[in-house]
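Deviations from the work plan: none for this task. Representative record:
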Amino acid sequence: DPYKNDPSRFPGLVVRNKKPFNAETPLTLLADKYITPNEIFFVRNHLPVPHPNVNEYKLQVTGRGIPEQVEFTLDQLKNTFESKTIAVTLQCAGNRRGEMNKAKPVKGLEWGSGAISTAEWTGVLLSDVLKHANFRLDDNINHVQFEGMDIDPEKKPYGASIPVHRAIDPEKEVLLAYKMNGQDIPADHGYPLRVIIPGVVGARNVKWLSRIVVSDEESPSFWQRYDYKGFSPAVEQASNQVFDDAVAIQELPVQSSICEPKSESTVNAGDLVTLKGYAWSGGGRSIIRVDVKSDQDEWIVADLSKEAKQRPGKAWAWTPFEVGVEVPEDFEGKIRYCSRAVDDSYNVQPENVENIWTFRGVLANAWSCINLNVQK
Ligand code: MTE
Ligand code: MO
């Protein structure tokens, strides 16, 4: 069993798959805290968890524009470069896939709204490391690839890449991170080093990082080339050729989800109910508004958490929201409440999942709705 050395996990996680281990954060706990504690941070593994010997650990930096391959031990990274700590939300491209699957079956793990979490990550800037390696940009350089230490049965590592402009820009704050919420990064989340790419889909935030390769091409990894891409609802499956012609997901679209109360909870007519949730957008775009509407009433505006105030263009972490809604007095039956977030480019979530359906079930960012059962 290649998974026999996987770490033990907090029993409160909502497990979606055991081998490889995939689990989401319970929604009530998610809405409770701005920073997600390590034990309940969602886990998305494609392969068995590797257990590198940190005393022998070295990060390799190589490829186009780097005159000579450079290697760093963990201590060299920590001692050579200034460290930075930033709050960054990671969201899986498959977050909320379950809702898309209900509209019409998709391929992939059945995620609820908990494949998203926020931590304070400490590390060194990738831009500093590249500078130290005497990296020189030229017109044939397009991508920076990352390789993990987790390997598939054919001995190929998990990998991903990002456009080079994001990697070299210190303002994008791409981190080679060795701490998560002040502790060594736990085994499930990439010990001893992972890349954190603020504002970019979870899949590119490679864990157990072993190698950085600058290239004209995207990462050759299956997960860069033949997964984590979006297609028209007209496309029901895709050949490698069709995948090659599609664009890899990087920054994610604007998102929100109502986390509390649980859908299908029972409330009394006339109650004041507090709806709580999160909103987030890719690329550092901040959340400027969350609107909430019931099928019985007009739009109202939710309160955005003050904790989430972030610098312009650098809203790397989510914005929790809450709003009190009055359940009508003379009513019995189901009421449906929906949230939709707006980011600072005035992008807004689409109304329904049917029209954004895509066969791998990624990019599910329609309005988030819950039903409440009202009793008299
Ligand atoms: N990195 C490696 N090496 N192996 C993986 O399976 N999964 C990716 C990414 N980095 C993965 C990886 C995906 S799809 C996501 S959503 C995030 O890690 C999840 O990070 P987390 O498990 O720390 O929440
Ligand atoms: Mo993911």
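The first helix runs from residue 27 to 32.
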